[in-house]
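Bench log, entry 3. Co-assembly request; chain sequences pasted below exactly as received.
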Amino acid sequence: MPRSRTLFEKVWESHLVRPETPEAPAVLYVDLHLVHEVTSPQAFAELRARGLRVRRPERTLATMDHSTPTTPRRSDGRIPVTDAQAAAQLAALERNCRDFGVPLFALGDDRQGIVHVIGPEQGLTQPGMTVVCGDSHTSTHGAFGALAFGIGTSEVGHVLATQCLLQNRPRTMEVRVNGRLRPGVGAKDVILALIARIGIGGGTGHVIEYTGEAVRSLGMEERMTVCNMSIEGGARAGMIAPDDTTFNYLAGRPFAPEGPAWDRAVEAWRGLASDEGAAYDATVTLDAGKLSPMITYGTNPGMGMPVDGIVPDPADARDASQRAALDKALRYMGLRPGERLAGKPVDVVFVGSCTNSRISDLRTAASVLRGRRVAPGVRLLVVPGSQAVKRQAEAEGLDRVFREAGGEWREAGCSMCIAMNGDQLAPGEYAVSTSNRNFEGRQGKGGRTFLASPLTAAATAVRGVITDARELVG
Amino acid sequence: MEPFERLVSRVVALPVENVDTDQIIPARFLKVTDKAGLGDALFADWRYAEDGTPRPDFVLNRPEARGARILVAGNNFGCGSSREHAPWALAGFGFRAVVSTYFADIFRSNALKNGILPVVLEPEVHARLLRQAAEMPDGEVAIDLHGRTLTLADGESATFPIDPFARHCLLNGVDQLGFLLAERAAIARYEAANPGRVYTVDSGEEGAWIH
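Structure output for the full assembly:
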């Protein structure tokens, strides 16, 4: 009888061009390489310098998302790029894709969007695949049972030129979420609670597989939210075994298999789940029924707590180094130990990013904002993850809900998650953000970020202060 | 890539935990298409005041940082974004080694590809190194990659782990792309046995994707 294997082991082993030896890492084959404007120019330059071509342009897809403006289109339908440096970077991607034959969903294309939103929505991300991108949130695609991880620009060059990477085999960690989530608690709260538990380095060297009843009951977009932030716990990748939820999401997407090929694919995909008795190097268990809506108070995603909690005291830290880190974070955030975050005024609410900009996220935010107004003095920015999400939201009238509430409805892109495109906080401003990183200056120099779910973000926009959404929507 | 065998240098001590790559180089500096000049943006938000002048109290701006090639940082250095601009900025400033108690995975991989050695020390040795950096800022630390040893300013020596392949590449200045290109035949065999899962290039019926 063959030995029991995890989902990760099955995908890893089926992509080995050469296995790892004591002297050299494995040569791992890449099924899908996603490319964006910020981490690719130096890689294409390396190919040019060496006279190399892109080995498999048909397994590569580029888009523009990080430095693109999200300001509304002009009357001629164009989205002007006013930042000269960003314009030059976008032009470089366009030129590189043309010269090397790589397909590109450029700014203005009706399939453009955040790289981790468009892969799944186009049906390009499929179970059992290896997916890489020069972006740490590539872990998102693991929601489909793919092995997906972020790489650096040198490695972008490696994949462009050889469709392969040199990789040491990571360890595995099972994160089992038992039980059922309570109303008002969602995928974002699960992942923030996990990172608060294991710390931002807790998953380093590991690929996480999320299992358990609460994970099984999540929809595909919620699963993507969970896997997306695996990197914030230090893990290169997060994976969830594919099931009917996965197959129902994929069926009929532009790049998904069709007809008999679809049936064969689903049959193969059903075999990917971890075998009974397969062993992980580490296991962490969460009780879904005990989780609350989460919010971060500090300057990394591990500094999180229930939204009705109080800011911890550095005096209670485990050691001097952690005390110094917490003290530094609270000074940056302008918070006092013992302070309650619920009721704290904010300046900006951002709904968007590869973590929470899909149609279900926008529906959730709209369910709170429908018939309500954004509190005076608060700026609400809603940025759909892709042009397809934007069209769908507009077809459902969600854009009107956001606008009538007093919010801004934008074009697709990374926007205020990374603040490269002009969408940013002013120094000292507080934001509740559905994005993934609350690092110092992440949303603009001097800006201060509270990470939370779309539900918490929308409720906070309405009240103008950090709000437990369950008080508003019951 | 310039080979790395032995390095003797004063150290810059930045005893902060969880230094993320957004601190190493903020995202607004990533709108470039080359690697040059990023050393000026290294730790920009900690290093410069609002008006762009250097903050005299930040460690990189102190006179003893000039010419130093070893950065000693707190636990979990390089977490967050995969931006290779982080090691490019460190190298641009002149660093060739970063010492911590552990490194985030992607940063470690990126650093190695740019000739920067990530040195992992036991917490006790790391604490001792930081103490000495404060007490004798002119003291020199020696890193020997052949022997996998770091020798502190007081002469005390410690070994550090490094995987054999990374060590081989650094010692010999081997670039990993060359190593992968030499696997062409094996890659072709793999592709012949494993047809592509997806085809991103259209057959042409809907026109080219590039517009």
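Chain B has one domain: 6-195. Chain B touches chain A through 61 residues (CB under 8 Å).
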